[in-house]
Amino acid sequence: QCQLSGLWRNEQDSLMEISTVRDDGDFQGKYLTRVTIAGGCTFPSPLKGSQQQPSEGGWPTFAFTVRWDKFSNATTAFAGQCFVDAGGKEMLTTMWLLREAVGSLQEDWKATR
Question: Which keywords describe this protein according to UniProt (predicted)?
């Protein structure tokens, strides 16, 4: 069984801490991106999400959002799955979509990465 709660580090040395996952799958936590650390900002950003409980023998899927409220007018949505490899190491695989605020509808094309 893969446990989503705890401290996680990604390939870019960003840190994410997820509190206890509630019985209904909801969770909260903090995200500290390496990009902001390199820029001198060390404020963690709040995250909120939900985990789908897997069927027997499955690996849980999850989604969460991060509000970059201290240094950017943007929000990122992550979706992924938690796995345990053959050596017993827990691993999260995710995809993300970042949305930045723009000043007009004409600039909408450049707001999402």
Answer: Biotin, Disulfide bond, Glycoprotein, Secreted, Signal
**Domain 6-110 sits in CATH 3.30.413.10:** no
**Which of 67, 19, 12 minimizes the C-alpha distance to 44?**
67
Task: Compute the 3-state secondary structure of the chain and give helix, strand, coil in percent, each to the nearest 5.
Answer: 10, 45, 45
What is the C-alpha separation between 69 and 57, in angstroms, rounded? Answer: 38
Which residue has tokens 């600039």? 107
pTM to 2 decimal places? 0.85
The more confidently predicted of residues 13 and 34 is 13
What would the two tokens of residue 102 be? Answer: 């723009």
